[in-house]
Structures are given as C-alpha cells and as structure tokens.
C-alpha cells in the first residue's frame, strides 16, 4: 500500500458543512430557531455524525472570517457541503475561486436545496441553474431512478416529505453524469432532485430537498441520502492536484 493510501486508511474523513446562516441570524422565518435550534448546518452535521461515526464533521458560516473556508480548512476537507439562499451575492469571489480550485483538485462537493443558485455551483456547471418554484408546503415524493447508484443505497423509494417547497422543471443544468432521484409534487410538477457531476478530479452531488421553513434535514431518510452522498464524493486518495492548463504546447505538438 502506498504512503498516501495508507494515510487515507489511518486518518478520519474530514467533512465541512457550510451554511450561510442568514435565516438563522435574522430569525426568518420567526420559528426557525424552534425547528433548527443549532441551525440547518447543525442538523445536517448531526445526521452525518450519526451515520458516519468515522468522520470528523465541522461547520462554517458566512459571517466567519473568509466565510469559515480559509485555505487551511479546505486543504483538510475531503468533502464540503453547501447550503445558501438569501446571500449568494455576499460570498466573496476569492473564496468561491478557492473552493472551485479544491473541487477541481479532488475535494467532493454536496450542494443542497437553494444552493443551486450559489456562485460555486453555477461557476462549476457553467449554466444559470435556474428552476421553477412555488412554496405552498406541498408533499414531495423523492423517487429513486437509479437504484444501483451508491447514493441510493438503503434509501426508501419513494422518500415521503410531508411539506416542502416545490422545485420544478425546467432546471437549467448540463446533462448530469447520473440522475439518481426525481421528485414529484402534489401540484403535478416533477424535478431532477438528485444529480451528479464530475469537474476536474472532484465529484459533485446536488440534492434539492431541504428548506428553512420545513424540518426536512431532521428526516432520517434525507440524512441517509446526504451521508451516502458524502461517501460517494470522498476522493479515492489524498491527492489535490488541479489540472494544469497553463503549460504551453510541447515543441513537437506545436510543429516547431
């Protein structure tokens, strides 16, 4: 076994759960503190600690210096989870670029719910990532359409979410590597709610259920999907090598 692979076996998995934290700070909606007393990031992190006891799980928020995503944090992280909604424009571009470089180098990225509009997601995917939406607290059914995928392992089909914000098509994303889940709503809409992508060496999973107005992140089935996503997105080794596109062509290739 190589030194790098041996290190991968011996050290714990490092996971960072990032939440802008604006809804919690502003008490918007007013009962969010009752639903998520430790913030949405706290609920997500608690689910990961329960299902991934071998992992070291930390949290970070927008208000922290460098949004809690300084170089030392990202160099240590194997997987980063991202929840944002009301403050996408307040995320510093330098931090976004730093995260992007780490994803290209191999760090896994899990984008949740309204993080579809985040700077990091739209820059990595290269599209608007816009969608249709309506928030009337409707039932959502999350259907597994690729049961062989590791992210679907141990997940009931469908997951029943009693109340949730409706996300619907058209979802302006590139064709995903894998379509794992499709959601249907009481109003008749459908949505590609669980999709994967690869950018550089990094694996990306987008999962839509989870809104500040509903206790979705306390649901064990949702926590299972997120934990499965973390396992799937974890890099196979400790390498963090960004593809180098700056090198000039070799002399033989340039024809000189």
Folded structure, characterized:
The structure is a single chain. 29% of the residues lie in helices and 28% in strands. By secondary structure, the protein is of the alpha/beta class. The protein has helices at residues 3-10, 22-26, 32-35, 39-51, 71-76, 93-105, 119-125, 220-233, 251-254, and strands spanning 13-19, 55-61, 79-83, 108-112, 132-144, 159-168, 178-185, 190-199, 202-207.
Key descriptive features of the protein:
alpha/beta; 9 helices; Rossmann fold; 256 residues; nine-stranded mixed beta sheet
What topology does this entry show?
Elements: H1 3-10, E1 13-19, H2 22-26, H3 32-35, H4 39-51, E2 55-61, H5 71-76, E3 79-83, H6 93-105, E4 108-112, H7 119-125, E5 132-144, E6 159-168, E7 178-185, E8 190-199, E9 202-207, H8 220-233, H9 251-254
Parallel strand pairs: 1-2, 1-3, 3-4, 4-9
Antiparallel strand pairs: 5-6, 5-7, 7-8, 8-9
Helix pairs in contact: 4-8, 6-7
Low-confidence stretches: 1-8
Number of H/I helices: 9
User: Averaged pLDDT, please?
Assistant: 90
In the CATH hierarchy, what is the class of the domain at 8-127 and 192-240? Alpha Beta
- Major β-sheet strand ordering: 2-1-3-4-9-8-7-5-6
> How far apart lie the N and C ends?
43 Å
β-strand number: 9
Order of helices and strands: HEHHHEHEHEHEEEEEHH
The named CATH superfamily of the domain at 8-127 and 192-240: Class I glutamine amidotransferase (GATase) domain
Percent strand = 25-35%
Radius of gyration: 19 Å
Q: Structural class per helix/strand content? A: alpha/beta
CATH architecture call of the domain at 8-127 and 192-240: 3-Layer(aba) Sandwich
Q: What's the overall geometry?
A: globular
